[in-house]
Design a protein that fits this description.
The chain is an alpha/beta fold. The protein has 3 domains: 117 residues, D-Maltodextrin-Binding Protein, domain 2 (3-Layer(aba) Sandwich); 82 residues, Periplasmic binding protein-like II (D-Maltodextrin-Binding Protein, domain 2, 3-Layer(aba) Sandwich), CATH 3.40.190; 81 residues, 2-Layer Sandwich (Double Stranded RNA Binding Domain), CATH 3.30.160. It is 34% helix and 25% strand. The chain contains 9 helices and 13 strands. The protein has a 5-stranded mixed β-sheet with strand order 2-1-3-10-4, sandwiched between helices. Strand 1, helix 1 and strand 2 form a beta-alpha-beta unit. Helix 7 runs parallel beside helix 8.
Length: 311
């Protein structure tokens, strides 16, 4: 292992703060430098729901540098990575997942149940839109393709929204935790695959990194994430698809919830799978097979067409 570790990440605020968290832990034993890379496509920091191909393009500059040995590690939100990793690279560690769910933020301390019909609530992606509209059809939710940071800035400035549904961890990373009014339960509002997880990517050939990666990895979070990403791997393609999954332990087993949504807010399919915690990939694949066996391949194509204009 080199005396100095170079971490690559994307330049937006939450990515830089993730990298800083990893760097802080590594500085107990190494000198650490954080290097930011522009995303591989314009506007990619507003990630919403992206196809596997779009995710690859987004992180390509960082992966190229990692593959070439110009940096030692890459740090991302796990939502930014395709389920099928670039050959030669792997997710070597994930930090402990403190919370995967979405939150309601706003100035008024009103929960979703207490919101007036005049409320104007921003949502971050089509997956959120479908779930909250199905649960709260009397409320007005607005999806305009903005980043979490942009929505929070507008809320802080007084408009045009009265509140917003956003990924909770991103809100806290950006320093807006005081605006959280309500935390939505993951079982009822299934988050994007990998939401709330910081992933550290490394080269497979760099065996000297293994001790370092073990020191960073949270095994309990990694098990749950492996099931979620196995589910995503089976269904993710080169068209954008609003898929959500959330895995949780259940004794010696694990339970994973899966959701497929279209951005019209009226098309939502939800399924659940339970299996052995010791074999998380099988549990994730079995959940994906439920969607396939029940004919949701056709439904997935409909959702892809509906979501296409946001990719």
């Amino acid at each position: 292992m080199a005396d100095k570790i170079i971490i690559g990440t994307l330049p937006h605020a939450s990515a830089m703060r993730r990298a800083a968290q990893v760097a802080q832990r590594l500085r107990r034993g190494w000198d650490v430098l954080i290097q930011s890379f522009s995303p591989g496509e314009v506007g990619a920091e507003v990630h919403h729901i992206r196809s596997a191909a779009a995710k690859r393009r987004n992180v390509a500059p960082i992966e190229d540098a990692l593959s070439a040995g110009r940096i030692h590690l890459a740090v991302h939100s796990l939502t930014e990575l395709p389920a099928q990793m670039t050959p030669g690279l792997y997710v070597g560690a994930v930090l402990a997942r403190d919370g995967a769910g979405d939150v309601l933020v706003g100035h008024e301390r009103l929960t979703l149940l207490d919101q007036p019909s005049s409320a104007r609530l921003a949502v971050f992606n089509p997956l959120q839109l479908a779930q909250v509209q199905n649960r709260y059809p009397n409320l007005r939710f607005m999806f305009r393709g903005e980043s979490v940071e942009a929505i929070l800035a507008k809320l802080s400035a007084g408009g045009p929204y009265t509140g917003a549904i956003l990924p909770g961890e991103e809100v806290e990373l950006l320093g807006y935790g005081q605006m959280i009014v309500e935390r939505l339960p993951e079982a009822g509002f299934v988050p994007e695959v990998g939401q709330g997880v910081t992933a550290i990517v490394a080269r497979i050939q760099d065996r000297a990194n293994e001790r370092l990666l073990r020191s960073l990895n949270d095994e309990a979070s990694a098990l749950m994430v492996r099931a979620e990403r196995a589910f995503l791997r089976e269904l993710e393609g080169d068209q954008p698809l609003a898929l959500g999954a959330w895995a949780r332990p259940a004794g010696e087993d694990m339970v994973i919830e899966g959701v497929l949504a279209a951005n019209d807010g009226h098309t939502l399919y939800r399924m659940r799978q339970q299996g052995r915690k010791a074999d998380p990939e099988t549990v994730g694949v079995e959940l994906a097979n439920q969607f396939v066996q029940r004919g949701t391949r056709v439904l997935a194509q409909e959702a892809m067409q509906a979501n296409n204009r946001y990719n």
